[in-house]
Amino acid sequence: MTKHTTPPDDGDRIVDEPLSEALSRRYLAYALSTITSRALPDVRDGLKPVHRRLLFAMRQLRLDPETTAKKCARVVGDVIGKYHPHGDTAVYDALVRLAQDFAQRYRLVDGQGNFGNIDGDNAAAMRYTECRLTEAAALLLDGIDEDAVDFRETYDGEESEPVVLPAGFPNLLANGSSGIAVGMATSIPPHNAAELIDACLLLLDKPDSTTADLMQFVRGPDFPTGGVIVEPAASLLETYATGRGGVRLRATWTEEQLPRGGYRIVITEIPYQVKKADLIEQLAELIENKKAALLGDVRDESAEDVRVIIEPKVRTIPAEALMESLFRLSALETRFPVNMNVLDARGAPGVMGLKTALLAFLDHRREVLVRRARFRLGKIEARLHILDGLLIAYLNLDEVIRIVRYEDEPKAKLIAAFALSDLQADAILNTRLRQLARLEEMEIRREHAELAEERDGLNALLASDKQQWKLVATGLRAVRKVLGPDTAVGARRSVFADAPLVDASSALEAMVTREPITVILSDRGWIRAARGRVEDPSELKFKEGDKLGFLIACETTDKLVIFASDGRFFTLACDKLPSARGHGEPVRLMLDLDDKVGILDVFAFKAGRKRVIASKGGYGFLLPEEETLSQRRAGKQVLNVDGGAALISQEAAGDHLAVIGDNGKILIFRLDELPEMPRGKGVKLQTYREGALRDAVVFKAEDGATWVDSAGRTRVWAEWREWLGKRASAGRLAPKGFPTSKRFRPK
User: Is there a domain that residue 585 lies in?
Assistant: First the structure.
């Protein structure tokens, strides 16, 4: 038996509290740390803590753009040792990304060595690579030694680090950012810095400018890998106004003509964050799995630039149709999500639109300007104070020399004789004999006048908001010259275009020989296609115990639509159906269709038609036939059956609908009382105390209503108008002679 003892005195390290409260408090602390110190960028400089610490550590190591690069291992060591207590792999990965021209629109690190490539290959180990800052990074750090930003203690209290960088340009939007925190995420695409600066200048000139006004300059993102942006302008406007949305981006391609009328597609730019090697593999799998019927071959001929060759399966296929099909099937087209969730100046997370983010950046630039002006003013005041003391010494040079030469405590005597401060007295005593010349006195007076003039200018600047904003604009214009569209790094890379309205399916159909066929679907779900028309269905052969279920006359270019009892529609290409030489194949292997789900209707799709669909529960609606098409094996859920089952699907070729319930009552109403819907439950067709809908039929009033009796004879229903009523009524009992099956047509 275990003996229990009293726990030792642990200096109050054991806390008695409910486990749920302890976990909640600790998880909240972890979540806040992830949000504010890891995953979300600051709206002012657009950097996360690890990136900011990397740039600051490189600045401390004097890795300026003009200096010699140093090993990345040295930088990573300084970062994790002084500022960022995380693993070296994570820090090095962050540094590598800052140096990749296909990942950063404006690289902040100039890397020397293997820093990975667009194929997705990893960078070399940090002991082999070297780095230094770029001109863009220097702009972000400009003024950091002039009290432009606040500093705080590092995690161990031995060093200090900047809370934010001065940020000479709007880096948040220029380079973008992405990250996942606890309960929130951020995804910001990169933009053109010159366009962003132009938008900032517009805000400085006209603060009431709208997002639409700003988009005269910032039309959309500018991805480092180029590409074609096909997102509509209205969608982009909403995205920039709300801070949430998405951007459709496509690969850039050209058509190269080949001898004998052939051609090939050359892809020169791929979408942002798509690995070229994975893209080639994806396209090859489409060919192998026969999912891209228009694609013949793909190969990579890239060297320094991207060059991916795509060859069509048949040279008569239009190039636009081929590319449209590949855009749908592969990563040649991507959608970059936009969620501009950032930390504001107070450290609070929130989603910002384009205007709000630019205004936050401008406020930061003004604060940096004011702080640098005050720092400079303090330096000037200190220097003027020294110069005032030196001028006093020159005016009383003989007495100063006497005091220094004969007094035991010259400093105290100078302070007492000329009312000097300690700093002034030290400056006089540290003056060399050769600096006592007349020319030196004139130089001091000139410096004093210049500094006094600069001091007055700084005081005027600090007292005038207008002058401050004017100087902010001047600084932005200077930055624009460095990152402008005329520079190699500033030229726009992504272009804008409207997605062409090309029907890729029509090009696919053009490859199929058009000929009549008859689709045969057995009662047990075996499907096949016979050439031509089947005139006598009785000659068809089936497996033992099976029989004919559906017989549909169509063509090889048609799409076959199947309606299941769970309310789903499935689509099959008629040219892909198995031959009628055997018994065919189970249709349930071609579709995700459970054995318990029945097949209610099969028809060849025809654009422009409408169908009446209804469930056993007595609800239904008119469905445009275009809504029945689906490219998925799982089909398309159109009719909501509410746990019941679908019952009816028939062409709406008439103007009246007759319905009958299990209770034997018939109701006839005009077809236009049914709403037209793409999907849903529909409206009530007939009211029942008990039972459900049994059957329905569409007919034209001019042709009259009919039913088919048990002997297969069509009976004319002359008095059908007596059963006319409003939709959702109870109806009347069926007329005498109506089939006891309570159906208008035999099942």
Answer: yes
Give the whole-angstrom CA distance, residue 212 versus residue 335. 22
* 563 and 694 inside one domain: yes
For residue 440, tell me if it sits in a domain: yes
- Answer whether residue 8 shows pLDDT above 60: no
> Confidence class of residue 41 from pLDDT cuts 50, 70 and 90?
very high
Q: DSSP alpha helices (H): ranges in 35-103?
A: 49-60, 72-78, 88-99
Query: In which region does residue 219 sit, left (phi positive, over 0), alpha (psi from -120 to 50) or beta (all else)?
Result: alpha
Give per-residue pLDDT as tens, 358-406.
999 999 999 999 999 999 999 999 999 999 988 888 888 888 888 888 8
**Whether residues 268 and 395 fall in one domain:** no
The answer on pLDDT for 1 being more than 80 is: no
**Percent share of the chain, pLDDT over 70:** 95
Q: How far apart are CA 178 and CA 51, in angstroms?
A: 13
Q: Is residue 144's pLDDT more than 90?
A: yes
Number of other CB atoms surrounding residue 158 within 10 Å: 9
- Verify that 597 and 709 share a domain, yes or no: yes
Give DSSP secondary structure letters for 320-338: HHHHHHHHHHSTTEEEEEE
574 and 720 assigned to the same domain = yes
Cα-based distances in Å from 400 to 397, 714, 721 = 5, 133, 127
Report the number of distinct structural domains present in the chain. Answer: 4
How far apart are the two ends of the chain, measured CA to CA in Å? Answer: 78
572/711 same-domain check: yes
705: tokens are 């209503």
CATH of the domain at 287: 3.30.1360.40
In a domain, 669, yes or no: yes
Whether pLDDT at 307 is above 70: yes
If one counts every other C-beta atom within 10 angstroms of the C-beta of residue 571, the result is 18
Question: Encoding tokens for residue 739?
Answer: 């089939």
**Whose CA is closest to 688, among 618, 639, 603, 588?**
618
* Whether 106 is catalytic: no
Of 30, 83, 92, 128, which one is the catalytic site residue?
A: 128
pLDDT, tens digit, 9 for 90 and up, residues 643-660 = 778 888 999 999 999 999
Is the model's pLDDT at 439 over the cut of 90? no
Listed in sequence order, the residues at least 6 apart from 220 whose beta carbon sits closer than 8 Å to its beta carbon are: 191, 229, 231, 236, 247, 494, 496
Note the helical H segments in 289-421. 319-329, 354-395, 397-406, 410-418
Looking at the structure, tell me whether residues 566 and 648 fall in a common domain. yes
pLDDT of residue 311 exceeding 90, the answer is: yes
Q: List the CATH number of the domain containing 468.
A: 1.10.268.10
d(CA 733, CA 589): 43
C-alpha 656/C-alpha 509 separation (Å) is 36
**pLDDT given at position 4:** 53
User: Is 495 part of a structural domain of the chain?
Assistant: no
Q: Do 678 and 599 share a domain, yes or no?
A: yes
The pLDDT mean for the chain works out to 90
pLDDT mean over 588-614: 91
Contact 564, 639 (CB under 8 A): no
Where would I find the beta strands (DSSP E) of 681-730?
A: 683-684, 693-699, 705-708, 714-717
**Residue 71 is part of which domain span?**
47-166
Quick one: average pLDDT of 621-636? 92
Confidence of residue 224 (pLDDT cuts 50, 70, 90): very high
Q: What are phi and psi of 100, to 5 degrees?
A: -90, 120
Which CATH number do you get for residue 587?
A: 2.120.10.90
Of residues 13 and 132, more confidence is placed in: 132
Closest CA to 51 of 187, 172, 189: 172
Alpha-carbon distance of 700 to 671, in angstroms, equals 10
| pTM of the full structure | 0.71
Residue 7 pLDDT level (bands cut at 50, 70, 90): low
**Whole-number Å distance between alpha carbons of 714 and 45:** 81
Q: Both 116 and 74 in a single domain?
A: yes
